[in-house]
Design brief:
The chain is an alpha/beta fold. It folds into two domains: about 35 residues; about 170 residues, Rossmann fold (3-Layer(aba) Sandwich), CATH 3.40.50.2020. Helix content is about 45%, strand content about 15%. Strands 3-8-7-4 form a four-stranded parallel beta sheet, sandwiched between helices. It is globular, with a radius of gyration of 19 Å. The N terminus is likely disordered. Bound molecules: zinc ion. Zinc ion binds next to helix 3.
């Protein structure tokens, strides 16, 4: 009960803040909004100069994923203990990607899922910090690069409707919406459907996660043309074992998607990979 009230408070303050930021285009409104909600670092909460940013110390602590990384799995080679670089048409592909090719064509992520990056994902997921979504989507736009620019559509990983009804918020949809706005590419919010309510993934083994999400998705009736022959970007907040996006990507591929790029904010690296 207390938790619910707490969550409601978070939700209402977040949406009020969102509304305040939405109108904060003129200096006057901005000053008023800053007075009520002074800009704070999205990582640690200290006062900073503008909304939707990190303080220098949090910024420096984020492990941004930079090249060289595996062209398929998106994992930086610094984390690849097997260091199995393989040239394939000029691309760098890890031994793991060759041994176990994923259902998607490639994954791109902004940062390693730890520290501040992990707190941002958590803040967006559990506290409905919609103000964080804009900042996170801007970073994801950069990570998506040409695959986002050239795509035919952007799809969020959907929640099952019962979970959505409970939470009233899908962090992946929020990120996808901002990515569509930033890139000017079409948003396909209802093309992919979650048909099976899955158990929470937290605490499950990789095998149980795969079983959990098997046949969890389908293409919404009448939306087949959104997928067939199209280059798609599938958006999620974090990639952990990959069971969820693999299941969703498999459905898109079976429906004739020409290309599926998975774009996430954070990427969990389990060592050794
Ligand atoms: Zn900070």
């Amino acid at each position: 009960m207390g938790d619910d009230a707490d969550e409601d408070l978070h939700r209402s303050s977040a949406s009020t803040l969102g509304a305040a930021l939405g109108v904060a285009t003129s200096g006057l409104f901005r000053k008023a909004a800053d007075f009520v909600y002074p800009p704070v670092c999205a990582g640690c909460g200290i006062r900073i100069g503008r909304h939707g940013a990190l303080c220098p110390s949090c910024w420096n602590s984020v492990k941004f994923i930079e090249r060289p990384f595996c062209d398929v799995l998106g994992i930086p080679f610094a984390f690849d203990h097997e260091a199995g670089l393989a040239g394939e048409g000029g691309r760098l592909v890890s031994a793991k990607a060759i041994a176990e090719p994923p259902r998607y064509d490639r994954l791109r992520a902004v940062a390693i899922h730890e520290g501040v990056a992990r707190r941002l994902v958590h803040g967006l997921k559990y506290r409905d910090r919609t103000d964080l979504a804009v900042m996170m989507a801007m970073w994801m736009q950069r990570a998506g690069g040409e695959h986002l620019v050239e795509c035919d559509g952007i799809l969020p990983v959907p929640l099952h409707w019962t979970r959505f009804a409970l939470r009233k918020f899908n962090q992946s949809a929020e990120l996808a919406r901002h990515l569509a706005k930033l890139s000017g590419r079409p948003l396909l919010p209802s093309t992919l459907k979650r048909v099976k309510r899955t158990s929470r993934q937290v605490g499950l083994t990789a095998k149980r996660r795969q079983d959990n999400v098997r046949a969890a998705f389908s293409i919404a009736h009448g939306h087949e043309a959104d997928v067939f022959g199209k280059r798609l970007v599938l958006v999620d907040d974090v990639h952990t074992t990959g069971a969820t996006v693999s299941s969703a990507a498999a459905v898109l591929k079976r429906a004739g998607a020409a290309e599926v790029t998975v774009l996430t904010f954070a990427l969990a690296i389990s060592a050794p990979i």
